[in-house]
Amino acid sequence: MTTRLSVQGITHRYGKKTALNDISFSLQKGTFCALLGPNGAGKSTLFSILTRLFVPDTGEIEVDGHSLSRKPGEALARIGVVFQQPTLDLDLTVVRNLKYFAALHGLAGKEADRRIAASLDRVQMAERAGEKVRALNGGHRRRMEIARALIHGPAVLLLDEPTVGLDAATRRSITDHVHDLANEQDLTVLWATHLVDEVRDNDHLVVLHRGEICAEGSAAGIAGQSSLHESFLELTGGSQ
Ligand code: ADP
Fold it and tell me: Whose CA is nearest to atom 21 of ligand 1?
């Protein structure tokens, strides 16, 4: 098995507040992992650490075998990120936005064009390439951000509550789509959410509560005899 993301002993404090307390888990190639936790669980803090916005007080992260603290350039190059807040230029076309991002990764010319076309294809957005982002609905903008996060061929895709603000049907279609990416493209996905209905039975599930992992394993196993919704409420004291 190939470990794509290794998170070991991560602790992070904001002053006296411990936001993450000794968090450890590992994800293999092609795994879809739902990081499920109520508001305040520490999901965004973990994402900030994974993207090196914050350096944790203790612990070690490796992406595709590269240490985030010792080889940040190599480790970050293997990550694609979709942030909670959209970060697209609304007045540029889809393809211009993607070219700009490709250039940040040192990709230009035919190679950039090829990768942009492939990643738009992957999210079924090829026909929208020439449109201004402002003309796209929320679901298509999110798809485009996923396409952007895939251009440089990352091993790990991080998505921080990517369905916030989307209607139910769009939420479902984006959630299904990213599950397909993990299954079909051998991508390792870490999907942060507080919404139980975004988790599928076969997903690897990490339940985060008050900065600690309170359950980890297959979603079906954690749900057990009851529904995942009930198990989650039980694990987190009904604080969703
Ligand atoms: P989530 O993304 O799961 O909602 P966060 O990572 O945002 O959780 O927050 C985890 C905990 O850390 C919460 O108790 C939150 O209030 C606290 N926290 C987050 N950011 C800060 C900050 N900049 N300063 C102090 N406390 C913070």
Answer: 14
